[in-house]
Design goal:
There is one protein chain. The protein has about 100 residues and is mainly alpha-helical. About 45% of the residues lie in helices and about 0% in strands. It has two helices and no strands. The protein has helices at about 1-15, 55-85.
């Protein structure tokens, strides 16, 4: 939790200063900055136009979630087999059919 807050603070500081390194002015930032805006109106009160929407957002989510979910399942299955093989954790077979 603390590391996440420190990371956000660092990114905000870099975004405000416009550079990622201290010694080289005018150099492109090493950390890619994500465009975002916090205001919806201008100083005069005019409403700003809609932000640019990233197409295929849901497709990108599924293209990342499904493979990593599968990899996580395989790692868990192999680790459970390893634990059972070395008799570290062996589930008991209880017959509840009485």
């Amino acid at each position: 939790m603390m590391a996440a807050a420190a990371g956000r603070l660092l990114v905000a500081t870099v975004a405000r200063s416009g550079r990622a390194s201290w010694g080289v002015p005018g150099r492109a930032p090493a950390v890619p900055l994500v465009p975002s805006r916090g205001a919806t109106v201008t100083r005069s009160g005019a409403i700003l136009p809609k932000p640019v929407k990233t197409p295929f957002g849901l497709l990108r989510v599924f293209s990342v979630v499904i493979p990593f979910l599968y990899v996580g399942t395989q790692i868990s299955k192999n680790f459970a087999a390893l634990l059972e093989e070395h008799d570290i954790f062996v589930p008991e077979d209880d017959d509840d059919d009485d």
